Amino acid sequence: MNESREDAVTTSMSLRMKATERTFPFSALVGQDLMKRALLLNVVDPSLGGVLIKGERGTAKSTGVRALADLLPTIRVVENCPFRCDPDIFEELCPWCREKVSAGQNLSVVERPVRLVNLPIGTTEDRLLGTIDIEKALKTGQKAFEPGLLAEAHRGILYVDEVNLLNDQIVDLFLDAAASGRNVVEREGISFSHASRFILVGTMNPEEGDLRPQLLDRFGLSVTIRGIDSVHERVEIVKRRLAFEADPEGFRSLWAEQDRALAQRLRSAQERLLTMVLTEELLELASRIAMAMGTDGHRADIAMIKAARANAALEGRSTVTADDLHLAARLVLPHRVKKTPLEKAELDEEKLKELLQSEAGSGSGEPQPWVPVHHNVPKPSAKGKTAVPPGECVTHLCPTSRAVLAHMPWHRMQPGNHPGRRFLIPFSQNSGAVHGARCPMPGEDPVDLSLLGTLRAAAPYQVSRRNGNGNGRPILLAQDIRLRKRSRKTGLSLVMIVDSSASMRSNDRMALTKGVIDALLQDLYLRRDKLGIVTFRHTTAEVLLPLTHNIRDAAAAVAALPVGGRTPLSLGLHLGLRLLVQEKRKNPETLPVLLLFSDGRPNMSAFGADPVDETFHYAREVKRHGIQAVFVDTEMDPMAGGCGYEIARRMGALYLPVDRLFRPR
């Protein structure tokens, strides 16, 4: 039996080498052991829910994913089936294969390598889920389904590079399919469902923004990788890469035996997986770890047990141990630990080790095998709980602290009445949710055709157009064309211009400004907005943070704001305006907003004219470009000579004294 299994692996590897492009061998990757282990565990147990790999540029994220596909064995599929159906599982056959079986036809079977399907950043909902086959519908008059990327990825790997840059709606769709194992399409009068089981791998660079916590929790495992610090290993990386580029086939042959042995381990682990022994003590330990780390829901408990079981199977053991659970916790918990939006999620390794050591010390007797209990355990009575006085829960109080309002008056901005991604953009081109059909605009190309709307518009005129011609095919004219009516949500592109001159030291203005900014960052994070920070002082203005979704970097930049020097306010407005104009050209659907924190007292010329006149000029430029603005006046003395209100009036901005953004004590 072992010989036949090895022959199958050898055949699989040879077919793979012929069918795929020249990829770097998985066994030749240097370091990044945690990433490689997370990928292998998802191969052993695809129900883990995929892996999210976070890391800086050039850390072998994409290389590792592509190399993984070479390790997977070939699969038996129905020949010419676009869904790559498994002929041995009738329940997962697509409707087309089921029709053949019901009609008594035999399904021809072939072996194919596992696919690695890339999901591009610009993917539309139709391309992901599938849509109506327009060509066949127009030729035959019948509605037919055209499979999408989820059909191509069935029984393979779905690779999503830069997943944090995808539209949240697209991320929701493929995460739903990964969790349920099926893709259900309801659109254009068509209802279609097919199996879609795949290994999900997402990669991202945290510097470009993070995923929403709700989406992060849907990934089974998460790994954060960094560049290798060892000189020896970095040199080895360079040597192997140069050798691969000089002779790809020769380099692959050097590592073929290691890859073949690893593929054999994966196949053995898959066969051993469901026979693994889980003890009651181990299940209780997993739940205690999840509660101690403050995770929400029960996904963490389930994923830890699955990952520990898969790791034990990969190591060739029949029993899951605490060491397996320790590794599983390092992969399952980092993206699930509770945190505030501006804090970085990190797993407390010391706390995890203490929990595992305390469990090891308290264990007694032989471990008992786990037996499932199919009933709900009654909740403990409230009478048995103890409470502590609220005063004991307070660690410290600052007598001068004031709570900052956690919102800004975005309702004064147009369009819409909600912040962030709540802004609804109608008639979005080729993306967004579909809300029926519409007539094309004058001169608009019919690139987003609504077939159902077009046929409905042409239906009342078919009898008169056919004029006795009974071939049954619809006759369409240009006036019948209808396009899909779409809309999608967009967010703010907000540039924050902060005065950090010497005048901000008086009356604790900079501390107040930072307090308002911290409260604002919370809202921007939740609404998935883009933020840039410009500061001006002495004779220069600089971009502390370019427009980005990474709000955590913004919080660090605000905390380190320097103070001192003169006030070149016009230079700060000029630089902030330039950032927003560039963003409008790149992303016309965004809503640009300029938020200025200053005491309104420019005293430094940037272009040779009067400082106040220069400031008024750029304030008018902000209004001319249609950029909405908010001026937060940090001047606390009503008798001071600041011209903040005049600057706001020329910008067409909303004028707010800074003390209006604080609740009374």
TrEMBL record:
SUPFAM superfamilies: P-loop containing nucleoside triphosphate hydrolases, vWA-like. Residues 493-632 form the VWFA domain. Pathway: Porphyrin-containing compound metabolism; bacteriochlorophyll biosynthesis. PROSITE patterns: VWFA. GO terms for molecular function: ATP binding. Keywords: ATP-binding, Nucleotide-binding. It comes from the Bacteria. CDD domains: AAA. Belongs to the Mg-chelatase subunits D/I family. Involved in bacteriochlorophyll biosynthesis; introduces a magnesium ion into protoporphyrin IX to yield Mg-protoporphyrin IX. This is Mg-protoporphyrin IX chelatase. The lineage of its organism: Bacteria, Pseudomonadati, Thermodesulfobacteriota, Syntrophobacteria, Syntrophobacterales.
